[in-house]
Amino acid sequence: MLKRVLVEGFTLRQLNSQRPQVALPTYRYRFRQALQRWVARPSPQPIPRGPLVLLADGLWFEFDGIPWVLYLTALKACGSNHATFLDPLLLPGREGASRWQQAIQAIPPDAVRRIRALVVDNLPGLQKIAEQHQWVLQLCQFHLLLKLQAQRGGVRYRLRGGAVRDEIHQLIRRALELPDGRQLNSTLARLHRVSEGDCGTERIQTTVREFLKGVSYYRSYLDYPNLGLPRTTNPVESMCRLIREMFRSSRAGSNPHSVLLWATA
């Protein structure tokens, strides 16, 4: 029953229709009991061995006007392309460094000692956390390019400075992939020049300046090839999407306790 709901996407009402002799409230009660027993068991996923890379992202909720964030973390061995998700942590308040510290403290200490790098979106405070733990920081390239793409498409692209914004998009893509050397230096120099001119919108100018300020963090995958760093947080983003879809179909995320229970399962 758990697998059919959590993995295959069936609703309790759909499953209950196959057992008409059981009233739906009773069926829901039995499912919740099974869910709680499953979550109470030790985590079935073994943490990978050896040096690790931590991937992290937050999923926002709101209950009675108060923001809550579900902190999702996953660990992968440096030489592997598979990530293992840990139990999430749900905390009230906006996403921030102090709450991410709590999420990291919830990771088993032995695993924390073996973490070598952190892969996250460009969020305030996470750079400081990486520095405190002496972790290599890889910022998500997908989120950066998504900001630029939003400024290039549709009506906004036809506003003033459209050609420059398109050039910025191409320059940043090159800067994310070029090896160290003359071409990279030339690309970054051009980005500096266009960021000081008329890029069309204040937002895209800010995006370019932020990129130039932290460009090394977007290129960590090139500087530390031995760590096998992913360039995006897409694995955790995908889990966020799956959890959202689960709550949409089950309508189970009505309160913080329910969100944590279902997401953990």
Secondary-structure blueprint of this entry?
Layout: H1 2-6, H2 12-16, H3 24-40, E1 52-63, E2 66-77, E3 83-85, E4 89-92, H4 97-105, H5 109-114, E5 115-120, H6 126-133, E6 136-139, H7 141-152, H8 154-157, H9 162-177, H10 182-195, H11 202-213, H12 215-218, H13 220-223, H14 234-250, H15 256-264
Parallel strand pairs: 1-5, 5-6
Antiparallel strand pairs: 1-2, 2-3, 2-4
Describe this structure in words.
It is a single chain. The chain has helices at residues 2-6, 12-16, 24-40, 97-105, 109-114, 126-133, 141-152, 154-157, 162-177, 182-195, 202-213, 215-218, 220-223, 234-250, 256-264; strands at residues 52-63, 66-77, 83-85, 89-92, 115-120, 136-139. With 265 residues, it is α/β, with parallel strands linked by helices. Mean pLDDT is 88; it is low at 154-160. Strands 1, 2, 3, 4, 5 and 6 form a six-stranded mixed beta sheet that branches. 54% of the residues lie in helices and 15% in strands. The radius of gyration is 22 Å and the shape is elongated.
Keywords:
6 strands, six-stranded mixed beta sheet, alpha/beta, elongated, 265 residues
What Rg do the Cα atoms give? Answer: 22 Å
Into which percentage range does the β-strand content fall? 15-25%
Mean pLDDT: 88
Oligomer: single chain
Overall helicity: 40-55%
Q: Based on helices, strands and strand pairing, what is the structural class? A: alpha/beta
Which spans of ≥5 residues are poorly predicted at pLDDT below 50? 154-160
Given the structure, what is the number of helices? 15
- Number of beta strands: 6
Largest sheet features: 6 strands, mixed
Would you list the SSEs in sequence order as H and E? HHHEEEEHHEHEHHHHHHHHH
Q: First CA to last CA: what distance?
A: 13 Å
Name the shape in a single word. Answer: elongated
